[in-house]
Amino acid sequence: MSTKSHSLVMLRRDFKHLTRNPTSLFNAVLMPIVMMLMFVYVFGDAFNVGVDYIDYATPGLILLAVCYGLGATATSVNVDMTKGIINRFKAMDVSRGAVLNGHVVASVLTNLIAIAALVAVAFLLGFDPSASALDWLGVLGVVLLLGVATSWLTVALGLAAKSPETAGLASVPLVMLPFFSSAIVPAELMGAGVRQFAEYQPFTPIIESLRGFLNGTPDTGALMAAVAWCIGIALVGYLWASRTFKKRA
Q: Contact, 167 vs 157, CB < 8 A?
């Protein structure tokens, strides 16, 4: 079998494992919706963002939907590494690249399902984007690029961790980082220090590029910064994951 065929087999395996784990499904698909309901109905009236809060918050919550599924990916990768499953795959002559590719693609597909559910709920809550069909393609492109980048970084974290428990904890900073960005409130409303961090951290231009597309006014500067950050994160994650996999496997 080719690497592509092996990757498809690994993808099917990883996706089955995910769908059979209620906790992972809740964190990946339902938790972002819970967060949306909480921010819109509990905190939404406390923020003056110049537009309906659901329209402002949805781009940031899309990014949160990507991040909330990463813990399951890191844990799954680490279980494969620490429980001897990788050695079994080696004995079966399964391509090394296929094992990692399967985890990455399964993570990205989970992201897309979670985001589709989130956006559907957002529309029910009154979300009213001005995006054209081309703008929606831009949103999809940014989401895919972000999903691939964060998935490779998460796979690397999972491979580097000593146990499944520490692997799950390793992804926590990625989950927390959006809260210190423009996801929930504009950076200019934050206090000194936090505001500067929010303005220059990688997730803010990604969120602003999504916000621009959904508003029908794409922000070229934010988009270029978002693409650069995603490519950089993906490259670091891929190289780190490949090196760690070769060393530990």
A: yes
CB 174 within 8 A of CB 70: yes
Using DSSP, state whether 201 is helix, strand or coil: coil
Please give the backbone phi and psi of residue 192, each rounded to the nearest 5 degrees, phi first: -60, 145
Q: At what angle do helices 220-248 and 133-160 cross, to 10 degrees?
A: 30
Spatial separation of the C-alpha atoms in residues 33 and 147, rounded to whole Å? 18
Residues 6+ apart with CB under 8 A from 25: 18, 19
Q: 93: which DSSP letter? A: T
Calculate the alpha carbon distances from 153 to 61, 114, 159, 229, 234 in Å.
20, 19, 10, 12, 7
Amino acid, res. 47: F
pLDDT (tens digit, 9 = 90+) per residue, 7-21? 566 666 665 666 666
Cα Rg of the chain (Å, integer): 18
Q: Is the pTM of this model over 0.90?
A: no
pLDDT, tens digit, for every residue of 149-206?
A: 999 999 999 989 888 888 888 888 888 898 899 888 888 878 888 889 988 899 999 9
Spatial separation of the C-alpha atoms in residues 135 and 79, rounded to whole Å: 39
